[in-house]
Amino acid sequence: QVQVVESGGGLVQAGGSLRLSCAASGSITRINAMGWYRQAPGKQRELVAVIPSGGSTNYADSVKGRFTISRDNAKNTVYLQMNSLKPEDTAVYYCNADVIVLGILRLYWGQGTQVTVSS
Question: Are 105 and 32 in contact (CB under 8 A)?
């Protein structure tokens, strides 16, 4: 079994910063892409950033230049550094990971972490 657990959310004032972490654990053979998504109240879940096991990262236009995604493959962990936060960044942030377990590729999601940006 594989678990994906996010941490690092909280309340911050506009213009502030937060760093989210997401660790995958369990019977993992390999992790391909890892990503961050968010869902604000009354809205659909949307992509924030994704980082493949190799190659370039991808960001939503709304966070380019403010957020940075990175990963530590040795720790099966992905990070999201969020700077210059805006009230519209308020959402539940979810992490996912494309994990290969015993030759089977499956997408795993974390439980989410709340980020609230006050104006």
Answer: yes
Closest CA to 91 of 26, 45, 55: 45
Integer Cα distance of 19 and 36 in angstroms:
12
CB 8 within 8 A of CB 20: yes
What is the average pLDDT score of the chain? Answer: 96
Q: Render pLDDT for 35-63 as a digit per residue (tens, 0 to 9).
A: 999 999 999 999 999 999 886 899 999 99
On whether the CB atoms of residues 24 and 1 are closer than 8 A, the answer is no
Q: What is the pLDDT of residue 54?
A: 82
Q: How far apart are CA 37 and CA 55, in angstroms?
A: 19
Amino acid at 15: G
Give the single-character DSSP code of 53.
S
What contacts 54, CB < 8 A, 6 or more positions away? none
Residue identified by tokens 């690092």 is 8
Residue 65: the pLDDT is: 98
